[in-house]
């Protein structure tokens, strides 16, 4: 499995978990702007969350693929810390570019502190899961290619 394929799998897994959190946010209380909601507004269809969800899933897959390419170049030791660092970068890009386009303001300041906190937490969860799943896939491939490397021959 290539690094991009591993990234796609990891991105899908992380996006699935974050999507569950986003769905809970949208259905229970709705105390923060959800990413699918923001995407629907940007695409000038605020009442159609299906479009927002589709973009959310595609963004997660895209970020996963990019992470697969960049993972070995990120300056931390563990896959999880690499995932968090990558997700922080994605958050900063989103907070400086995407949020203002969607009307939430730079760093979600027009949407309130709850939205800023929500985006930070959801990106941290995404990053930890992205790195963890990617790291597991890398370890699995390494052990599959070297089945006898762990035990000495007697």
Number of strands: 0
The total of helices stands at 5
Shape: elongated
Residue share in helices? over 70%
User: Order of SSEs, N→C?
Assistant: HHHHH
- What distance lies between the first and last C-alpha atoms, to the nearest angstrom? 32 Å
Secondary structure category = mainly alpha
Beta percentage is under 5%
Sheet with most strands: none
Radius of gyration: 18 Å
Q: Could you tell me the mean pLDDT?
A: 91
Detail the poorly predicted runs. Answer: none
Kindly describe this structure.
The structure is a single chain. The protein is 72% helix and 0% strand. It has helices spanning 3-27, 35-42, 49-70, 79-101, 113-145. It is elongated and about 55 Å long. The mean pLDDT is 91.
Brief synopsis:
This protein has 154 residues and is an all-alpha fold. The chain has 5 helices and no strands.
Which descriptors would you attach to this protein?
154 residues; mainly alpha; 5 helices; 72% helix
Write the layout of secondary structure elements.
Layout: H1 3-27, H2 35-42, H3 49-70, H4 79-101, H5 113-145
